[in-house]
Write the structure tokens for this entry.
Amino acid sequence: MRRWILCLLAVLFSLSMFRPAFAQNDISIQTLEVEVWPEYDQPSVLVIYRITLSPQTKLPAEMVFRIPRSAGGPAALAEQTENGLFNIEKYSQVGEENDWLLFQFITTSPQLQLEYYEPLVKNGSERSYTFRWPGDYAVESMTVVVQQPRTATNMRLQPPTGTSGPGSDGLTYFNVPVGSVSTGSTFNLQIAYTKPDDTLTQPQAFEAVTPALPVNRTPPRSVLNTVIPWVLAGLGVVLIGVGIFWYLRTERTPSRKTPRRPRRSETSSSDRSSQPASPIFCHQCGKRAQPGDVFCRTCGTKLRR
């Protein structure tokens, strides 16, 4: 019994030490291109992150991004594969921090795309918006590209833009080279322009946008990986305590020997002599003789014993 308990405890201890093989190295971003499109297909601001992780990042990688609280959550989250851009189906909100919501997910590709919508400040014909990079990861090269709405004029950026010019779609784009950004360093870009109407750049694309998955859906594998080992470790501790209690109890309790059943003794010669003898009959005439007779009382033949 004790051997079985010790084997079970050893197995549970090994399970409690199990950790899935996800990359735990420091993650950095090689290139980050942020596109800011005010009043594109919604009367708000569409922010797009196009991310390429550094070659040193081991995959799969667990990432946490902060998104403005006013955005409510990602509008889209996808990773680039050899077959195209595919949604990352599992992500979850793992916390809140001042004006930010923290979202966690796992990527198997070094190229990602994250999108969200944030409100635009309107004051008559004047529009304004401030893009904020929270500095969650170190970035080797960061660029912000701002799309001017189709009917907007007098576009102003702070800090000032590097270059501006028309794109292939006929819209004007402002390029802001940010360069290298270390972990924890933030970057803010203030955008303002004049627009006399509420016409969207792509009105036919407007529709209600919802996250790829609800925020409270199944948590990512890494959260389970954090919880399951603790549960197994707690179960292992409980079973170890039970095993120690059982061992001490069996050591302190005197063993009870099973009483041996008395062996059946053989009948002594004296006992056999006290038992009645079998009757004797005369072999000649068949008459029964009396105890102690030597000769048959009927025919006189000597009895055989």
